[in-house]
Amino acid sequence: MLQSKLFTKTVKELPKDEISFNAQTLIRAGFIDKVTAGVYTFLPLGLKVHNKICDIIREEMNAIGGQEILMPALTPKNVWQTTDRWDSFDALFKLAGVDKKEYALGATHEEIITPLVKKYIFSYKELPVYIYQIQTKFRNELRAKAGLIRGREFSMKDLYSFHKDEEDLDKYYEIAKKAYFKIYDRCGLSDKTYLTFATGGAFSKYSHEFQTLTSAGEDTIYICDDCKIAINEEIIKEQETCPKCGGKKFRKEKAVEVGNIFKLGARFSKPFGLQFINEGGKKQDVIMGCYGMGPSRVMATIVEVHHDGRGIIWPEEIAPFVASLLKIKNQKSPAARRAAGQAKIKNIDEISNKIYTDLQAHGVEVLYDDRENISAGEKFADADLIGCPYRIVVSEKTLAKDSVEVKRRDSEKCEFVKLKEIINYF
RNA sequence: CGGGGUGUGGCCUAGCUGGCUUAGGGCGUCUGGUUUGGGACCAGAAGAUCCCGGGUUCAAAUCCCGGCACCCCGACCA
Asked: Could you give the CA distance from residue A248 to residue A225 in angstroms, rounded to a whole number?
């Protein structure tokens, strides 16, 4: 991507209507734009990151047998009445059609997936099945906050599993947990993410959350450094030792819930009559699990966890681009350029252009800062703010050594790489 | 939903206490020039329903009433 063509640009001032670091920084760097409280547009850079997170999630969900579908955001009232959630789920956005028929914007999709599966699954031979989607969810939060961490509209991956019995659900539940950690690992969050025991809300005794430690978090959890688990404060009283292993390294931390998995049992299959015929020819309730994860919230959490005073430091797999390529040239005045015959300037242009096209041809995604009349300082500041993992500089200084300068965003060290070798660097 | 705060060119903001300004500055944009390894400088230019509606007044960005939006704290958060 040529930065001169990127329609967004960075801004210096912090937006006055955001206090959370993730929102301030993502807005400043041109990843997102705020439309109204809790509702954001994903701009080219932000959408790229969001898509990469979704791609990772897809890969890991497919790897555990997930089949992707896409359910509607607009859902009819009757299915919510079937499960008794039309009135009890107060974050539901409700609206009426011209025919006075009422709808809800999907806040979660058990009410859609359960009747769907009922149309196709009849026998124990067809179970288990794992179905997921990545979709926009709507929740009428009384108060949106923390930027992308708690919006009224947000993206969510929701996987639903369907089993013949609890035992089979338990097995898959463990598989799903592992897949979740793979995702967090690839998103650069695994070091700070803890499997956390939490309440099950309206339909199970307990659930497991995946909580990432950061001061930006809304949840308070107790973590155990010995057994690497955590317990949400909503289900535990203040105490000093881990109830699991007795370990003494048990402490209170702020965290963001980046995932939540539930054993639903027959909570939804019962009201919809989702049953199957077992080996003995008898009808039995399908046992369900559900597994949520919000890509947009994951994105915000990554920003909260990986940044420094200059901007974002994206983990490599989800960065909008692997590298920022900065062309820094000694431009001179038009008169001086004419006098100098432009020899040197052309050289820098040609070499940077070539590096850009070569790297792209090798599959390296590059954000090429080809902008003219922009000072070096501004290019550095932008590159740091946007936060691609590598920065490549082409300037008179580097060309004097027949090289480019390469610097990792997460390090202060620079190294010179010969022009011929830059392709092989990545 | 309770409490508090804020609303001024695209962005950040001064002015509001104590009414009368050509509504000031910075960023960004445009023109010209000087610069070029950490958001550089000079000169000029464009760009404003001062959130909306009503009221008080000779006169309102400023005071009063109502509304809306946004932010913060709390509550809430399958």
From this structure: 9
What is the average pLDDT value for chain A, to the nearest integer? Answer: 91
Radius of gyration of chain A (CA): 26
Q: Which nucleotide is nearest to A143 (CA to C1')?
A: B76
- Each domain of chain A, given as residue ranges in start order, spans 21-311, 321-425
Share of residues in chain A with pLDDT > 70 (%): 95
Protein residue closest via CA to C1' of B40: A375
**Same CATH fold assignment for domains A21-311 and A321-425:** no
Residues in contact with A2: Cβ distance below 8 Å, sequence separation at least 6, in sequence order: A368, A370
> What class does CATH assign to A21-311?
alpha beta
Each residue of A33-43: pLDDT tens digit?
999 999 999 99
Q: Is the pLDDT of residue A338 over 60?
A: no
Residue range A293-309: average pLDDT? 96
Tokens representing A423?
Answer: 């392709």
Q: CA distances (Å), A332 to each of A1, A181, A225, A344, A345, in order?
A: 26, 53, 58, 11, 9
Spanning CA of A234 to C1' of B73, the rounded length in angstroms is 20
Residue A255: closest CA among A288, A199, A224, A301 = A301
Average pLDDT over residues A360-375: 94
Q: Which residues are CB-neighbours of A358 under 8 A, at least 6 positions away?
A: A422, A423
Which nucleotides of strand B lie under 7 Å from a protein CB?
Answer: 1-2, 10-13, 26-29, 33-40, 69-78
pLDDT digits 0-9 by tens, A263-281: 999 999 999 999 999 999 9
Q: Are A320 and A314 in contact (CB under 8 A)?
A: yes
pTM for the whole thing?
0.94
Give the 3-state secondary structure of residue A350: helix
Q: Could you tell me the distance in Å between the CA of residue A221 and the C1' of nucleotide B15?
A: 47
Domain A321-425: CATH architecture, name and number where available: 3-Layer(aba) Sandwich (3.40)
Nearest residue, CA→C1' of B39: A378
Please tell me the predicted confidence (pLDDT) of residue A152.
93
**Residue A15 CA distance to nucleotide B23 C1' (Å):** 23
